[in-house]
Structure formats: structure tokens, C-alpha cells
Write a structure and sequence with these properties.
Blueprint lengths: L1 H6 L4 E6 L2 E6 H4 L6 H7 L14 E3 L6 H10 L11 H10 L3 H17 L3 H8 L10 H5 L9 E13 L2 E18 H8 L3 E2 L11 E7 L4 H10 L3 E13 L8 E12 L1
Parallel strand pairs: 1-3
Antiparallel strand pairs: 1-2, 4-5, 4-9, 5-7, 6-7, 8-9
Length: 266
């Protein structure tokens, strides 16, 4: 029955995990016997699994962390970026996908890290819900060695606003359309975690650079808070703007568009 179920799935499988799209081989998904994916893709059939609007098999889990699950299924090895702070959450994903060996490795790593500093437990607890966290212990930043994770992160946004004929009376405040992140991959993931949208530049190694990531929210202050909590300081900023009239009539409202970048360093 398991062989029949496996044959009913295509050799190349498309997955939608929490909004992140992955394409892999059926052999990879079924590489660990008795795991959740092995069970779903050998003992079940395509009709048994939920699908998204494009027919991809859907799993309502953390799409960012699933890349490490998939790497483990490919090579039976665990390679995490430097300064990776999502071990407990990744261990939870390993438990869900029924990968006991991966879960044991992560549990062992967590114990080793906790023995280094008594503050590490508090740090992990904060990371369990990073989306709205605004209070990171300053002692965690102080314990970081001076050269650890040094680098630059550039945050940019495009905005627009209008100024009416009465200047300030009719001014409409800027609208931030999207916040982009330019930096080394490992730094971007360390700072912004699961609030980082990587769909435009997926599966790049942590030692490479990207200018295609953007954030899932559009509040600059939220991005600045995360950078400050990670020990970054603003070192430069620049902005450009252009003005055009809403119509050919010079008496109509003026439309301004601008692009602004903030450079942070650690």
C-alpha cells in the first residue's frame, strides 16, 4: 500500500509551507522513514493532502524554518547560519515533522548554548515570539564579542505624499509602500527572522549578499527597533525626491515621490 501511495505522487513535488514555496524531489521528502512527510507521501495519496490555489501541497507551518528541515532531509546533516537564534522554534518544527534525530541535535545545541551564559534562556524565550518584541536584554548585546557578526544593514523605502495649493494645510503624509533590506544574508535573517520576506531571492547561502529582501510590515520604527536590539547603530542616511503635478494645471496638488536609505552598522 505504501508503494502504491508513493507512486501516485509526482517525482518533483511543489510545497507551500506557510506561504513559502519549495520544489523538491519525492525521494527527499520520504528519506526519513516514519517521519510525517514520509507517512503523508508514501501511505497517502494526493487527494488526502490540502492544497493551495495553485495545486501545491500545503502545510501550515513556519515557511522560513522549513528550509532547514528540507536541508536535513537531503543530507542528514544540520548546518545552521552563524548566530542562529531560532533553535527552539526549529526543534518544535522537527518534533512536528517527526524527525527525532534532528530534534535531539537541536536540544543538545540548546543545552550547550545555555551553559555559556545564564542570560541565554531569557534570550531564547524572547525569540519565541519576535514579531512584537520590544524589550531585549542589554546584557545579551554586551556579551557579544566586538567582532562577532560585524557588518552593515541598509534599510530603504519608497514613499509618496502630496502638497496642496495651501502647502501645509493640504499636505498628506507619506505612505511607505515597502521596506527593503540590503545586507549579508546571515545578518538579515539574524535581525529580522520570520518577518523577512525572501520570496524574491530564495535559497541563497548565508555568506552571500542580497538587495532583494523586504519586510512583511511597513513600519520603519519596527525595523529600527529590531536593528537596535541586535546591536546595530545608524551611521548614515540619504534621500532623493522628485516632484510632479497631479495634472497639467500648476494650481493642482503637487505629488512628491521619494526614496530613502538608512545604513546601520555593528
Amino acid at each position: 500500500m505504501a508503494q502504491t501511495g508513493a507512486q501516485s505522487f509526482p517525482e518533483i513535488v511543489e510545497l507551500n509551507v506557510g506561504g513559502q514555496v519549495y520544489v523538491t524531489r519525492l525521494e527527499t521528502l520520504t528519506s526519513v522513514p516514519n517521519s510525517l512527510l514520509w507517512t503523508r507521501f508514501t501511505e497517502g495519496s494526493p487527494e488526502d493532502l490540502p492544497k493551495d490555489g495553485k495545486g501545491r501541497f500545503f502545510f501550515d507551518r513556519d515557511g522560513f524554518l522549513f528550509r532547514y528541515i528540507l536541508d536535513y532531509l537531503r543530507d542528514s546533516e544540520l548546518f545552521l547560519p552563524e548566530f542562529f537564534k531560532e533553535r527552539r522554534r526549529l526543534q518544535r518544527e522537527a518534533d512536528y515533522f517527526r524527525l527525532p534525530e534532528l530534534s535531539r541535535r537541536l536540544a543538545g545545541d540548546s543545552k550547550d548554548n545555555s551553559s555559556c551564559t545564564e542570560d541565554s534562556g531569557a534570550e531564547e524565550a524572547e525569540l519565541s515570539s519576535p514579531a512584537t518584541s520590544t524589550s531585549t536584554s542589554t546584557s545579551d548585546r554586551a556579551l557579544r564579542s566586538p567582532g562577532a557578526g560585524a557588518g552593515y544593514v541598509t534599510v530603504g523605502y519608497r514613499g509618496s505624499y502630496t502638497i496642496g495649493r495651501d502647502i501645509q494645510a493640504d499636505a498628506k503624509f507619506r505612505r511607505v509602500a515597502r521596506i527593503t533590506v540590503c545586507s549579508k544574508i546571515s545578518l538579515a535573517k539574524e535581525v529580522f527572522g520570520d518577518t523577512l520576506n525572501e520570496s524574491r531571492d530564495p535559497d541563497r547561502p548565508p555568506d552571500k549578499y542580497t538587495s532583494r529582501y523586504y519586510l512583511k510590515y511597513n513600519f520603519l520604527e519596527q525595523a529600527f527597533d529590531r536593528l537596535a536590539e541586535a546591536g546595530f547603530h545608524m551611521v548614515a542616511c540619504n534621500s532623493t525626491g522628485t516632484c510632479s503635478y497631479g495634472s497639467s494645471d500648476p494650481g493642482e496638488d503637487k505629488l512628491w515621490t521619494s526614496y530613502t536609505e538608512y545604513v546601520f552598522s555593528r
